[in-house]
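Students often ask why inverse folding is considered easier than folding. One informal answer: many sequences map to the same fold, so there is more than one right answer. In these notes we will look at a single instance of the problem. The structure comes first.
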């Protein structure tokens, strides 16, 4: 059974940094596209960043471009989201998704396995 578990969220001041981790078991992230999404209170869940199965292609949403970076460590079977220069509007629950099928390019609406999310709060 595939399990996805996010960690690394918390409270951070504006301008600060956090690194989220998405640990995957039951599936090797080296073979699947992965992505990070977020949902703020009262808003729909939206994509933050994504990566193709081979890591060659990444995409980042405009509001976080230049500040957030997605990466994955195949040896650790973990996907990361490095978040720098955080703003109050980045406050949300952050979710990780691993694609259902292997060897795909990242697409926000592709079927996948989701984690439970981790809360990120940016506030002074």
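Output (designed amino acids):
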């Amino acid at each position: 059974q595939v399990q996805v578990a996010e960690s690394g969220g918390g409270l951070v001041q504006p301008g600060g940094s956090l690194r989220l981790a998405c640990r995957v078991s039951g599936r090797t992230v080296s073979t699947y596209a992965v992505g990070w999404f977020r949902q703020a209170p009262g808003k729909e869940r939206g994509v933050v960043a994504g990566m193709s199965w081979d890591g060659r292609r990444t995409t980042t949403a405009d509001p976080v471009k230049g500040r957030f970076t997605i990466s994955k460590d195949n040896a650790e079977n973990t996907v990361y989201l490095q978040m720098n220069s955080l703003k109050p509007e980045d406050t949300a629950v952050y979710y990780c998704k691993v694609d259902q099928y292997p060897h795909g390019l990242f697409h926000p609406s592709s079927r996948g396995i989701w984690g439970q999310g981790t809360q990120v709060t940016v506030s002074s």
